[in-house]
Amino acid sequence: MNWLNSIENPGWTGGLEILILATAFYFLLRFFRGTRGSAILTGVVILFVALIGVTKFSNLPVLNFLLQKLMAFLALALVVIFQPEIRRALARIGRQDNFMVSKSRKALADPITDAVQLMAARKIGALIAIEREVETKGIQDTGTPLHSEVTAELLTAIFYPGTPLHDGGVIISEDRIAAAGCVFPLTQNDEIARNLGTRHRAAIGMTEESDTIVIVVSEETGVISIAYNGRLKRGFDGAHLRRILSRFLGRETSGLRNMTRRQNSGRGQMAFIFGEDSGER
């Protein structure tokens, strides 16, 4: 027990530093939990700790010295590896509380739902993103600007097979169709179901980089899916979709945040979108 006597009292400043570091590590692990970066981060940490331990206790000072110096380059490597997760986190930090609820915006739930139901019945593939706080101007530029009124007829016409804009995504900003034929970023998450096609992967990827909600209609099965916060749930009917869109479009930023904070489980914002009785997929 003599080694215990060699431990110095860190004092209140040392205790504060320990608390700050512990908090930082906690939120870092919480942020990466469930993402593609979690497995990579775990593997990198285990590898470096194991190599440093082996070289230190095996009396290999040169290798141990080189590994410790490589730690400085590890930070740069982590930025490159976790670029999607870091970009998503910075986007969340930079959000502004400018999401004002209006009657015209809440009324969008009806034409969107009507169009999605019609396309699902006819098995017409569709990809519709509804912008919230994080702007999607860069993705809108990949498509054709419309700035048109949101109507069920126009949405159906856009995605009708053979039309110039059907093979892409529609972005709804505020209460207008901002652009159509947009190229959404594909998710890099390796844990999603392999039977999901490009349209569903694009929906997940879009929600990973913004706070949009994305509605997907499968052209093979006509199944309606919703992606939000990097996750996807399938099998919605018209009534459930209309209810979700009404809540999403009629919810102010502060209300959504307060509702999210009250969640005791890890479901967070997904519980708000999918309801307490819906699971995640």
Care to describe what's here?
With 281 residues, this protein is of the alpha+beta class. It folds into two domains: 2-81, no CATH class; 103-274, YojJ-like (1, CATH 3.40.1700. Helices cover 53% and strands 14% of the residues. It has 13 helices and seven strands. The chain has helices at 2-5, 11-32, 36-57, 61-81, 83-93, 103-106, 109-121, 137-140, 152-159, 198-209, 238-249, 253-261, 269-274, and strands at 126-130, 144-149, 169-173, 176-182, 213-217, 224-228, 231-236. Strands 2-4-3-1-5-6-7 form a seven-stranded mixed beta sheet, sandwiched between helices. Strand 6 and strand 7 form a beta hairpin. Helix 3 runs antiparallel to helix 4 (61-81) and helix 7 (109-121) runs parallel beside helix 9 (152-159). The longest helix is centred in the N-terminal third of the chain and has 22 residues, at 11-32. The chain is elongated and about 75 Å long. The N and C termini lie far apart (51 Å). Mean pLDDT is 77; it is low at 96-102, 252-270 and 274-281.
Pick out its properties:
single chain; 281 residues; alpha+beta; YojJ-like (1; seven-stranded mixed beta sheet; 53% helix; disordered C terminus
